[in-house]
Every structure is written in structure tokens, then in C-alpha cells.
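Bit of a strange request maybe. I'm writing a small parser for C-alpha cell strings and I need a real example to test against, not something I typed by hand. Could someone generate the C-alpha cells for this chain?
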Amino acid sequence: MRRLIPMWIAIIAGFAMLFSAFFPVTEFFGETFGEIFSVVAAIAYVLGAGSLAKINLAKISRRDQGWGYSAITLFCFAATLFVGLGKIGVPPNAQFAALPWSGEKNAEGSAFAWIYEYGLVPITSTMFALLAFYVASAAFRAFRAKNLEAILLLSTAFIVLLGRTFAGVVLTGWFPDWASGLRLENLSVYIMQVFNTAGNRAIIIGIALGVTATSLRILLGVDRSWMGSGGNS
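Reply from user aminoacidic:
Good idea to test on real output. This should exercise your parser:
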């Protein structure tokens, strides 16, 4: 019974959302389950915050390796939560000037906006800057002309990279107008707009088919792995 009831709730809600997109008569049910999903998502955020605190506090208490990072994580989480919920430094909304908490938490000049602008944005930029080195290292290992596929991959990457730099313009800028399509900057644009777009669309179609198949398995009760261990029993 513990697994039967959640399974039927998922099946009914899933089919209601599915039918509401195709049949206007059932649109009300889709909107209702959408609102219920928002409530469940809010509860999930609370559970996620509790899980984050539990895991990191346990790591700090055991003095596991890297427990200092857990302490920093908890401190930043608590500080951001306090600033966001308390709307520290938020100017009041112009329509409700008498209410101090009427403004948006991320309004310009608020503490939450300051944390985002001078905390999250630099950290995110640093992370992506570091990822560039990992991508370059992986590309160096992958771009080895061992076979025809590797040669095509290496040649395409070489054209796209040079076409996006000033060096590509200098190397092929002397081509006459009738051969402008062979210039590296134009070849780079052509590859990204034609071959890359075609590949992306094929991947998206494959993902859509996979999501559809998985969703149907869940809606029909065939796949119960989402209920945890023993869900398929």
C-alpha cells in the first residue's frame, strides 16, 4: 500500500498533465496539478536544505577530510538564507512604500543582490575559467588522428577554433570574393549553423524519444524505480 498509493498519484497526475495539453476540457486539472506540484516543490526545497545541513554537519562533527569546505558551505547557505528571507537592505516597492518588505529580495542595492553580484557571479566565472583548462586537456587527448573519425573531428575543431580568432582572418583573408566561402571565418559559421545544428537537433530528438519512452513506462506503472529500492517488486 505504501507504494501503490504514490504510484497511482503519479499516474493520475501524469495523465492529467498530459491530457490538459491536448484537450481544453481537461485544462483545469492540469492547472490544479501544476499548483500542487509547486507546493510539493517547495516542500522538496525544505527537505533538500535539511539534507544539506545534515550531511555537512555530520562531516564537520567527524572531522572528515575537507570538513572545512562543509563549514564554509553551511555558513554561506545560512547567510544567504537569512539575507534572502529577511530581505536585508531591500528598498520598498513604489506601489507599497509604507511596507518595508514589499520590494523584491534581489532588487538593486539589496544585500541579496550584492551577494549574487560579488559572490556568485565571480565564483561561477572562475569555475568556467577552470573548466576551459580541463576541456583543453580532454581535447588534446581526444584529438589524435588515429582513424578517419578522429581526423574529421580534429579538422573540424581546428577550422572552428581558427575561424573564431583573428589568426583565421589573417590566414585566409586574402582569398578572392568568389572563394569567400572558403575563408576560415565563413567556414566556421557554416559548420556551426549547418552541421552543428543538425547534430544538436538529432540529439534533441533522441532525448525526446527517450523521455517519452521513460514517461510512458512510469505512467503505465511498468517502471517503479523512482519509488526507491524495492519499487519494482
